[in-house]
Amino acid sequence: MSASVPSFVAPPxxxxxxxxxxxxxxxxTYRTGFWLNQFVTSLKQCNLLVQPGETFGLLGPNGAGxxxxxxxxxxxxxxxxxxxxxxxxxxGDRTVKHRIGYLPENPYFYDxxxxxxxxxxxxxxxxxxxxxxxxxxxxxxxxxGLDAKAIAKKxxxxxxxxxxxxxxxxxxxxNDPEVVFxxxxxxxxxxxxxxxxxxVILTLKQKGKTIFFNSHxxxxxxxxxxRVALLxxxxxxxxxxxxxxxxxxxxYQVSGRGGNLDVLGQWLPxxxxxxxxxxxxxxxxxxxxxxxxRGMGGTLVELKLARATLEDFFIEQIDQRRKT
Length: 324
Ligand SMILES: Nc1ncnc2c1ncn2[C@@H]1O[C@H](COP(=O)(O)OP(=O)(O)OP(=O)(O)O)[C@@H](O)[C@H]1O
Ligand SMILES: [Mg+2]
What we know:
single chain, 6-stranded mixed sheet, 11 helices, 14 strands, binds adenosine-5'-triphosphate
């Protein structure tokens, strides 16, 4: 790990409540090339804990190893070394499968099935009765925004990418899982679709589900996740809450109109004017400033925490690593 990245990656301590995901020096090396004599280490010595009820976002540039980590946790590929547990059981253990949902990165479904047929097939694998299936499928189509009538006879090969992503999300939730793994759930979705997925994830979070997802849409990650990890070239650079990674700032960017400019200038050093509004930076908590502003008849237009975004953080960390 480079010296410039945060140093709060440590092997996880034994948790008090069983972690949903725990990895200990988890490593995956693929053999590649015609003679399988070349090696690519996609995940190196990964130590990670995800607790029940957490919404955990795994970030990293293309090829960082995010999908590899998900596949290891789901038992789709085997680790080269290290170990991990999922819901307290060693990864690959079949007894926890019915408690898990998974949306793969590039879902590949049988082209000639309709969406409801695919969902019915998946529901059958989880042992849902015909009555339960009908009810659950109708519920899920509604949740993911697919019109049951419009898709009733449409084979999946005629679905748009966004529709496939939605049906993929529905199949991941068919068994009402405790833990949901989503690999790029926003991929291929228009802004409305992204909003819908964000909403679905927030609803799952409210129900106390654990969500582990990869995404390149950092603004969404920032609004949804309790904790994130940053992975690059197979190495976990840092994990933490957004406050831990971006810092807790008690500085605010404030914009407004009206009020007494002399008084405002004392609150907001370096006050500026643009497009009919004043803009400034407030040091400290905003309560006293807001009552002072109200007292002088001013109007608040915007108040936001002045700190780096997750995107700034991501780019800075990866840039620094590339330079060292
Ligand atoms: N089956 C495989 N055989 C050989 N190499 C693989 C295999 N799967 C992944 N890799 C390699 O492992 C590295 C990590 O790939 P992975 O798909 O986990 O990245 P990712 O972070 O999910 O990327 P993206 O954001 O593009 O989805 C890449 O260099 C990739 O080429
Ligand atoms: Mg991937």
